[in-house]
Amino acid sequence: LLGQILDQWFESEPLKATLATDAVIGAMASPHTPGSGYVLLHHVMGELEGQRGAWGYVAGGMGALSQAIAHAATARGAHIFAEKAVCHVLLGRDGQAQGVALQDGTEVRSKLVLSNASPQITFLELIPQEQLPKDFVQRIRQVDTRSPVTKINVAVDRLPSFLAVPNARDGQPLPHHQCSIHLNCENTHLLHQAFTEAAHGHPSNRPMIELCIPSVLDPGLAPQGCHVVSLFTQYTPSMLADGRSWDEQARNAYADRVFDCIEDYAPGFKASVIGRDILTPPDLERIFGLPGGNIFHGGMSLDQLYFTRPAPSYSGYRSPVPGLYLCGSGAHPGGGVMGAAGRNAAQVALKDFRHL
């Protein structure tokens, strides 16, 4: 249990609760949920510029990372077709993957196909079900994809000034503005209470909020004097109680609640807001193809990791369809901006390619 791990090392409840947020990030789970300790360790593995467990901002925004990977690929001869939706994977008579068909009718032939889409899209939408083992299909359908995450992107006309560390008179950024700021994390009971409310279909009354201001380190993201604030919040259920949907009223009511919470820590924040974009779990699914809005293509609980990710006997990137590989967050070792699944899948695909 996460609580046991943190209790061994720390005494301060606010510190333990703040660290606990990385144990439940993207997970419909409480710090008291068995296995949550692994998610914490998953998020602090690796290093950045020699600092173990460190995280960083991508200059130019997260999309710049995708562009960097794309430029590296094209420099080595890859052809990239953006905004081209895949309709299905082309299969030969022997059931081998032979390429993909696009929605505009174009067929792209290849000896191997690697899918960065979720296991649900890859195997339940792009492959005819009769081509897959029934127990495999059942396993993919049963993957827990519940997501508690609502992401809110905010444009503000001045830096937030927190009661704990007020801004200087010149309004220049202070060290904490460059970090991830955790709100409503004074103790782990608050996190558990927030989870409990969502488990019953209600958005958290005091949601866990991770607030980042990337424009402090990357001024090109906003006009001079203005900033962009990224709010990673939970817990919000995909389906609201009584079967209600996330309509505009529900989305704005939740965002207003989040902003009220921030206002308690940084008076004047609400008055500084000049625009906001609210992405609830259904929005994340519709826009980004995340099953259930889950940012990891499926919960990273102990029953969905290692040799069972995405399904038993298929954790090695190969799939029941010869020549089709899974290389996204739904594959081992799971989600996070680390590229491990893609790198591992590429090595397996290259090994197989040499024998074709």
From TrEMBL:
<feature type="domain" description="Amine oxidase">
    <location>
        <begin position="32"/>
        <end position="162"/>
    </location>
</feature>
<dbReference type="InterPro" id="IPR036188">
    <property type="entry name" value="FAD/NAD-bd_sf"/>
</dbReference>
<dbReference type="GO" id="GO:0005759">
    <property type="term" value="C:mitochondrial matrix"/>
</dbReference>
<dbReference type="InterPro" id="IPR002937">
    <property type="entry name" value="Amino_oxidase"/>
</dbReference>
<comment type="subunit">
    <text>Interacts with COX5B; this interaction may contribute to localize PYROXD2 to the inner face of the inner mitochondrial membrane.</text>
</comment>
<keyword id="KW-0274">FAD</keyword>
<dbReference type="Pfam" id="PF01593">
    <property type="entry name" value="Amino_oxidase"/>
</dbReference>
<keyword id="KW-0285">Flavoprotein</keyword>
<protein>
    <recommendedName>
        <fullName>Pyridine nucleotide-disulfide oxidoreductase domain-containing protein 2</fullName>
    </recommendedName>
</protein>
<comment type="similarity">
    <text>Belongs to the carotenoid/retinoid oxidoreductase family.</text>
</comment>
<dbReference type="GO" id="GO:0016491">
    <property type="term" value="F:oxidoreductase activity"/>
</dbReference>
<comment type="function">
    <text>Probable oxidoreductase that may play a role as regulator of mitochondrial function.</text>
</comment>
